[in-house]
């Protein structure tokens, strides 16, 4: 799989995760409270809605984490474009100007 495909999947999961988290309410409201009292029991119950949203959140988070780790292996590296770092460093070192390694002369009369 290419890096672009991983990136697209990660973005889709990120948007889905945002939507699922926005639907939830930390105090037990959210989507489960909109079903009302008695009607919610016939649909599946408030508890089942909370369990579904909780499981979906964890599944999407784990899937995103796994895709991010796998995308690391699909990142195009520097060797693909023909750049060799070792040769570049050697060229810089051989083309560098030589420096004078002798210390500058001191003037004892200024002391």
Automatic annotation (TrEMBL):
The keyword Flavoprotein does not apply. InterPro entries: SecG. It is a multi-pass membrane protein. Residues 93-111 have a biased composition (Low complexity). The chain crosses the membrane at residues 5-23, 57-75. Residues 88-111 are annotated as: Disordered. The keyword Hydrolase does not apply. It holds the Pfam family SecG. Coiled coil: none annotated. It comes from the Bacteria. It is found in: Cell membrane. Keywords: Cell membrane, Membrane, Protein transport, Translocation, Transmembrane, Transmembrane helix, Transport. Belongs to the SecG family. Involved in protein export. Participates in an early event of protein translocation. This is Protein-export membrane protein SecG. It comes from Pseudotenacibaculum haliotis.
